[in-house]
Design brief:
single chain, 132 residues, alpha+beta, 4-stranded mixed beta sheet, 59% helix, 14% strand, globular
Length: 132
Amino acid sequence: MIRYASRALGYTWASPNTFLGALFVVPAVLTGGGVRFERGAMEVYGGFARWFLRKIAGGAGAMTLGHVILGQDRDNLDWTRNHEHVHVGQYMQWGPFFLPAYALSSFQCWRKGLNPYRQNRFEIPAYEQFPC
C-alpha cells in the first residue's frame, strides 16, 4: 500500500514538469509525430518533438520532462528508454525543482571547465546505469 501511495505522490510531485512535456503532444501529432505509452511514461516522437530536439536541445536523441519523454523517433526512444527512465525517477524525487537543479549542475560544470551535459550530476547515474 505504501508503495502505491509513494508512486502516486511521485507522479503528483513531478506533474508541473509533466505538464510542460504534455505541451508537445498536439504540435508533434499535428506535424506527423506520434504518442505512445511505455512503463508509466508518455513518449512523444517525431514532428515538432524531433525539430525541438535537433534545433533547440542541441541534437539530443531524447529528453525527459516529468513523465513525458520526447524522442526524435521511435527507434531512438527504444534505444534510450532505460536511460530516460532514470530521469523519470529523478523527476519523481526532485519534482518542480528538477529543472532548476539540472540547469544549476550544468552551469557549475561549465564554470569548472567540465562537460555540462555528460558531467551533470543527473546524467552521471543515468549513464552509469544505462549508457546510450
